UniProtKB/TrEMBL annotation:
Keyword Lipoprotein tagged: yes
SMART domains with a match to the protein in the record: EFh
Stated name of the protein: EF-hand domain-containing protein
CDD domains with a match to the protein in the record: EFh
Keyword set, alphabetical order: Calcium, Lipoprotein, Metal-binding, Myristate, Repeat
GO molecular function, one term: calcium ion binding
Domain EF-hand: 60-95, 96-131, 141-176
Stated family: Belongs to the recoverin family.
Entry keyword Calcium: yes
Length: 190
């Protein structure tokens, strides 16, 4: 097998990840080994990413996989490198609310223009609620959730959410943040 093709994680990348994620160096090295085993050329494509998510969440979140992939591909290269991959894992499990909100903002900003438009939010909620097995008849619809979110977050009422509007609103209102997370999270134990 192409062992010699396997590059080592550079010191700079490792340091960057230690500083920007909750992971410690031994974990980062373990993740790197696994990542390179799955992706010997150091790049994960969308199909590999879907396979990974499938193993991680079972089949529940593969519907959102393309959006996760888009948001994780920070440099818009069409593939996910190890740094992007670990940042994605970190966003998914970090206890730092601001980090999480940053990630969610990118997830909702489908066209990447720096603001969340209402159809983008409705779109993501539609997909998220489709895979939520715990939903019941009286639950709010994606349109209703978006309405509520825009009412709370859109400070200047221009029908667009900037990253600042989005993050400050939720940082100032933990209850709203909890509701927001409950509607987007597909993990069981949140
Ligand atoms: Ca990339
Ligand atoms: Ca947008
Ligand atoms: Ca606004």
């Amino acid at each position: 097998m192409g062992n010699q093709m396997r590059k080592k994680l550079s010191k700079e990348d490792c340091k960057f990840l230690e500083e920007h994620t909750d992971f410690k160096k031994p974990h980062i090295m373990d993740f790197y080994k696994d990542f390179m085993k799955m992706n010997p050329d150091g790049n994960m494509n969308l199909d590999d990413f879907k396979d990974f998510l499938y193993g991680f969440y079972k089949d529940k979140s593969t519907n959102l996989a393309e959006h996760y992939f888009r948001a994780a591909d920070k440099n818009k290269s069409g593939t996910i490198n190890f740094t992007e991959f670990l940042m994605f894992l970190n966003h998914e499990c970090t206890s730092n609310p601001e980090e999480r909100l940053n990630w969610m903002f990118d997830l909702f900003d489908i066209d990447g223009n720096g603001t969340i438009e209402r159809p983008e939010m409705i779109n993501i909620y539609k997909i998220a609620l489709d895979v939520n097995e715990k939903k019941s008849a009286g639950d709010p619809t994606p349109d209703e959730i978006a309405e509520k979110m825009f009412e709370c977050c859109d400070k200047n009422k221009d029908d667009k959410l900037t990253k600042e509007e989005f993050i400050t609103t939720f940082m100032e209102d933990p209850v709203l943040f909890a509701i927001f997370c409950r509607n987007t999270d597909e993990t069981e134990d949140k």
